[in-house]
Amino acid sequence: MNSVTNETQATGHPRRWLALVVLSLALTMVVIDNTILAVAIPSIGKALHADETALQWITTSYSLVLAGLLLPLAVMSDRRGRKTLLIVGLAIFGVASTAAAFATTPAMLVCARGAMGVGGACAMPASLSVLNSVFAPADRGQALAIWSGVAGFASGAGPIVGGLLLARFWWGSVFLVNAPVAIVALVAAVAWVPQSSDPASPMVDRRSAVRWWGALTAVIVAVIEGPRQGWLSPVVIVATAAAAGLFVAFTRNERRSPGPLIERAAARDPRMRWGAASISALFFGAFGSQFVLTQWIQFSQRRSALEAGLLFVPNALATVVAALGNPRLVARFGHGRIVATGLGVLGAGGVLSAIAVVAGSLPAVAAGGLLIGAGIGTASASCVELIMSSASPERAGSAAGVNETLIEAAGATGIAVLGSVLAATGSYAWPLPVMAVVAFVTAVGATRALRGANSSINPATTA
After folding, report:
1. Quick one: which of 414, 157, 418, 429 has its CA closest to 300?
2. What is this structure's pTM?
C-alpha cells in the first residue's frame, strides 16, 4: 500500500487542505465546461451555421469522450500515479480549450471538445481519488461535501460565467478562459498535491474499456439521431442493437476479467448500485434541463446570454448551501433519506420549470432552478460517499472513475434525451417532466434500497 494511504489512516496528509484547493480548482474547470457552453449555444449556432443536431454533438462530444475514458484512466491512475494523471489532464485540457476557442466549423469544434474530454478524463477521477487518499476517515466526509459543493456550484455557475463572457467577448471566450485556469491548477498541483498509487492494482482491461465506450457512444448516437433520421431508420436501429450487444459483452467480460474496471465486491454493494443510480438521475436532470432552459430563455424569450446566465444564480447558490448542509443532515437522517429527498426536490424543480415555461414566467424558471440546485446539493455528496465507500482503499481510483463516468454519461444522455424530446415536440416544456419522472422513480428506489445507509466508511477500510 502506498505511503499516503498509510499516513492518512490516522490524521490525514499534512497538505490535504491545500491539495483540496487544487483539486477543487481542477474540478471547477472540468465541470463548468459542461454548462458554460449552454448559454453560448445560440451564438455558436449562428457563427458556425450549426443546426440543432450539430449543436447537440458539440455539446455532448465532450461528455461522451470524458465518460468513455474516465473509468479506464481512473483504474490506470491507481497503478501509475494519481498526481501524474491529474497533471497530464490539466495540460491536455488547457491546450484543447485554446483550440476550441478558435474553431471555424462545427466539425472542428466537435473534435476540439473531444480532446478536452480526454484531458477531463485524466483530471476528474484523479481529483476524487487523491482526495480519498489524503484525507483520514474522520474528516473525509467534510472534504467530500466541499468537493461535491464545488462540483454543483460549478455546474450552476457555468451559465452565469458564460453569460458574463459573452456580454463582452466572442463565443470562443467560454473556452479560452480555461487556459489560464489550467496553468494555475497545474503549477499548484506540482507544488501541493502528494503522489499516491498502488502498483499492485490490476492492469486496465482493454476489452472492458473498449466495450464500455462503444456501448455508451452507440446509445448517444441513437438518441441524438432518432428525431432527425427517424426512430426506425437504419442508423438508429444499428446503433441501438450495437449498444445492447456491447453492454452485454462488457458485463460478461467484467465477470471473468482478472482486472475488472469495477471491483466485483463494489459492483454487488447496494451503496454502489444506488449511489450510482442516484447521481446519474441528478446530473441527467441538471445538464438536460440547462440545455433546454437556456435555449428557451434566449430563443423564445429573446433574452441575452448574460440575462440567461443570471437566471441560474439561484441554482448555483442553492447547490452550495445545500451541499454544505449535507453532513449534518446525514448525521441525523442517513444517506438513504437524504438522497431520496434531494431527488424529490430535483423532480419538483423540473415540474415547476415546465409550468413556468408554459406560463412564460422568467421568475418562476429561476425558482425552478433554485429547487433543482437544492436537490443536487442535498443529494450529491451522499451519492459520492456511497460510491466511494463501496470500494477498497486500493481501488479508490476505480470508484472515483465510476462516479465521474456516471456524472458525464448521465449529463450527455440528459442533453441527448431532453434535446431529442425538444426536437421531436418543438416544445421547451415537454422535456422537463421527463427529467422529473426520472428523479421521482429513482428516489422511490433509493428509499427502499438504502434504508439505514448512514456510514460513509466501508468496513473493509477499517479492518
Report:
1. 429
2. 0.73
